[in-house]
Write a structure and sequence with these properties.
CATH architecture of one domain: Roll
Strand content: 5-15%
Distance between the termini: 19 Å
Structural class: alpha+beta
Number of helices: 12
Number of strands: 4
CATH topology of one domain: Chitinase A, domain 3
Order of helices and strands: HHHHHHEHHEHHEEHH
Oligomer: single chain
Largest sheet: 4 strands, antiparallel
Shape: elongated
Helix content: 55-70%
Length: 281
């Protein structure tokens, strides 16, 4: 914790040195060469060229105007009780704290351990390849069961039926290849996707109900969920591990700051005693 706080102090000191405003003399504004270079670089990034002498003079004039208004506004206390300013300052401090992390890249052992401890985050989803023939509820009405049975027998009796000519017209594709199970559920509904998990492979089955109507289905292939090897998901594991470290670093930083304060919450009918204890931690 001591090393962590020292690192944070060094970071804030460095940040303050870069953006420090000369407030030791309220009536004096110093436009340093560092600030002029910063204005020049900002102009170049926007316009893809260096500013002319007149443009640079305008940039400096605008900066001085901003500095004057900033100092006067701070002197008048206009930053106090302003929700937008408070949140902006909070965001800047959180941004700085999230970058106080160990720059050392995670080792393979750390990546392996993280993958083993969080297998569901990286486990490959079930995938399906199937054909489907659609029957409309409105078109068939009372004859739906019989028509579906006749069509199913026709499909089973043919070695390579032309399914584009069978069933009722719709905007759905007749063939789906290597589609993730959640995508099937998104297109057809959870009930349809769940039914496909239990159907045998390599033969026409049905009817299977969806959010559109009913379908006759031929499942070509079904790939079950599996735990991937680190080599297959290395980038995703590294990215998630670094994100976890960033969040942990931010939490430690806040906890360190929070210990500097005591909090008192005045009695209010809308806040219970348990809620008070929770927010004061």
């Amino acid at each position: 914790m001591v090393h962590f706080l020292l690192l944070g102090a060094m970071l804030f000191a460095a940040h303050g040195a870069l953006v420090k405003r000369d407030t030791s003399k309220p009536g004096k504004i110093v436009v340093s060469q560092i600030q002029i270079d910063h204005l020049t670089e900002g102009f170049a990034r926007t316009w893809l060229r260096a500013p002319t002498a007149d443009e640079l003079e305008g940039l400096i004039r605008d900066y001085i105007r901003e500095e004057v208004y900033y100092r006067e506004a701070m002197a008048m206390g206009l930053d106090r009780d302003d929700t937008i300013i408070r949140r902006r300052l909070q965001q800047k401090l959180e941004f700085l704290s999230e970058n106080i992390t160990d720059p050392t890249p995670p080792t393979d052992d750390e990546l392996h351990a993280f993958l083993q401890n969080h297998p569901d985050q990286f486990r490959a989803r079930r995938r399906l390849s199937f054909h489907q023939v659609y029957l409309s509820l409105e078109r068939h009405r009372d004859s739906l069961a019989g028509d579906a049975g006749d069509l199913l027998r026709q499909l089973k009796s043919s070695n390579s039926p032309d399914i584009s000519r069978l069933g009722d017209p719709s905007l759905l594709e007749h063939q789906f290849a290597n589609v993730e199970a959640p995508e099937v559920a998104k297109q057809f509904g959870e009930k349809f996707a769940s039914a496909l998990n239990d159907l045998p492979l390599g033969e026409w089955q049905g009817p299977v109900e969806s959010s559109y109507g009913i379908h006759l289905v031929f499942i070509d292939e079904r790939t079950e969920r599996r735990s991937p090897a680190l080599e297959d998901v290395r980038d995703a594991v590294r990215r998630e591990l670094l994100n976890v470290r960033r969040l942990e670093s931010s939490k430690k930083f806040y906890d360190g700051l929070r210990k500097r304060y005591t909090v008192e919450i005045e009695s209010a009918p809308t806040i219970t005693s348990d809620a008070k204890k929770s927010v004061m931690k």
